[in-house]
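From the methods appendix. Each design record in this collection lists the tokenized structure first, followed by the designed amino acid sequence. Records were kept in a plain field format so they could be parsed without special tools. The example shown here is representative of the layout used throughout.

RECORD:
FOLD TOKENS (377 positions):
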């Protein structure tokens, strides 16, 4: 059912009528727009601030995960997993220290070395440029549980470099490490370490589950170190409180019918999460929209954007015919998030998705309503 969401107050209508009587016919009332929005992110799965609220109100991490991931349970990882995270694409040599071995060579952990690309292979070199070993397609440098990578920082696990397929002369800089160590390096970059312990535990289980289901199939890596996967900062970003949450849930993952679930999460939902089918196009039985009663803790639970008439028409210029007259929301998800809308312009009508609308206007989410305000000339 179509729903027109730009609202004009009775007072504005009356003022507009009076202006047409008082001012010459050529004078026109100015128009401004207020976009009322809710939430921040895609809105699918667990809302971090909503989970925070549940923890503040005494709910445990198992309850929290069960609420946001419908029909799931908690299982355990049965074997040791190693994940590979892309830290950077280096256009030149990759320096490192702290390694005791690489490419079959024993190294001094107190000295610096470098990975150097040679065609489709990698060479191990001294910091002075002397070739120490030909490593083939991959250089792997490991030490006593951690390694320092020039320009990147200190990381648990090992450094691996492989030639970048899409960029001549470049190397993919990859951190290979155990799953639990990876989760430690993600946690404080996704949620504040000061949050309640039960929320941190829920987040740790979700992070671990995403790590096992989010393989991007990269050249020498499984995951990105940014929001394309999860934000990973390595050893230097770890906190005691988040490490404790990881230890308390060691090996635990969210499961659905025996498989590890893809536990998507975002900052906040605006009060109701959305079903995966309405955001990503494919239905997932455990990623369906649910009420999120404590999302009000989020600073972006509600937000507004303000535009003049010319500003909003300019922002929507790629989709709009003429100048914007009104926005008609034609389809929403299980939450009021916009799936599609009609832009009524002075030159005709056009169709736009909620994602296109939000991106054009700089919105934080696709949960939006539009208020048209008439002012003076």
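DESIGN:
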């Amino acid at each position: 059912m179509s729903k027109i969401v730009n609202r004009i107050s009775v007072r504005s209508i009356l003022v507009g009528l009076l202006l047409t009587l008082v001012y010459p016919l050529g004078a026109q009332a100015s128009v401004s727009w207020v976009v009322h929005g809710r939430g921040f992110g895609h809105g699918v799965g667990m809302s971090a601030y909503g989970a925070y609220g549940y923890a503040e109100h005494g709910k445990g991490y198992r309850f929290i995960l069960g609420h946001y991931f419908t029909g799931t349970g908690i299982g355990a990882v049965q074997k040791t997993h190693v994940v590979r995270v892309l830290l950077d694409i280096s256009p030149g040599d990759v320096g490192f220290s702290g390694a005791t071995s690489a490419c079959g060579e024993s190294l001094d952990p107190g000295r610096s070395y470098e990975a150097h690309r040679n065609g489709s292979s990698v060479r191990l070199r001294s910091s002075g440029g002397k070739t120490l070993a030909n490593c083939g397609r991959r250089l792997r440098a490991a030490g006593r549980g951690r390694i320092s990578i020039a320009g990147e920082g200190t990381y648990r696990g090992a450094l691996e470099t492989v030639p970048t397929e899409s960029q001549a002369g470049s190397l993919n800089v990859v951190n290979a490490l155990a799953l639990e160590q990876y989760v430690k390096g993600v946690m404080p970059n996704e949620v504040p370490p000061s949050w309640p312990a039960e929320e941190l535990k829920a987040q740790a289980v979700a992070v671990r589950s995403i790590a096992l289901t989010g393989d991007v199939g990269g050249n020498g890596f499984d995951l990105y170190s940014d929001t394309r996967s999860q934000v990973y900062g390595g050893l230097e970003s770890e906190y005691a409180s988040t490490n404790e949450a990881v230890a308390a849930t060691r090996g635990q993952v969210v499961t659905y019918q025996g498989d590890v679930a893809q536990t998507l999460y975002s900052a906040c939902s605006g009060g109701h999460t959305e079903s995966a089918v309405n955001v990503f196009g494919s239905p997932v039985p455990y990623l369906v929209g649910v009420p999120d009663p404590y999302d009000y803790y989020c600073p972006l639970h509600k937000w507004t954007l303000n535009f003049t008439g010319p500003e909003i028409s300019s922002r929507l210029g790629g989709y709009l015919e003429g100048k914007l007259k009104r926005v008609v929301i034609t389809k929403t998800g299980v939450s009021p998030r916009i799936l599609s809308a009609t832009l009524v312009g002075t030159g005709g009508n056009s169709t736009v998705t909620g994602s296109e609308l939000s991106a054009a206007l700089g919105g934080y989410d696709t949960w939006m309503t539009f208020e048209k305000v008439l002012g003076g000339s």
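APPENDIX NOTE: The chain has three domains: 3-39+301-374, 46-80+181-280, 92-169.
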